[in-house]
Amino acid sequence: MADEDAKNPDNYEEYLPTAEEVDAWHSSEEFDSSSGDNAAAIEPDDVDANNDPILSEELSWDDDEEINPNKGLSFSAPAPVQGEILVPLKDLKVWENHPAAKSRMRAASFEALCESANDPAKMPPLEIIETESGYRIIDGRLRWVAFGMVHGTTSDVSVRCQIFNGTEKEALEKLADSAVGTTPRTQIEQARAIHNLQRVAGISQRAITERYPVLKKDQVSRMTIAARTVERFPQVFNLLAEPDRVPIDTCVKFAQWVKAASEEMRADMLKTAEALESEFIARSGSGGGEPGLLKPAELFDAFGIEIEGGGSKSKASSSAEVSDVLESIDIFGEDDTPVGVVEKLDERIMRFQLPDPSSLSPDQREIAAQGYIRQILDYFGLKGTA
Question: pTM for the full model?
Answer without folding.
Answer: 0.53
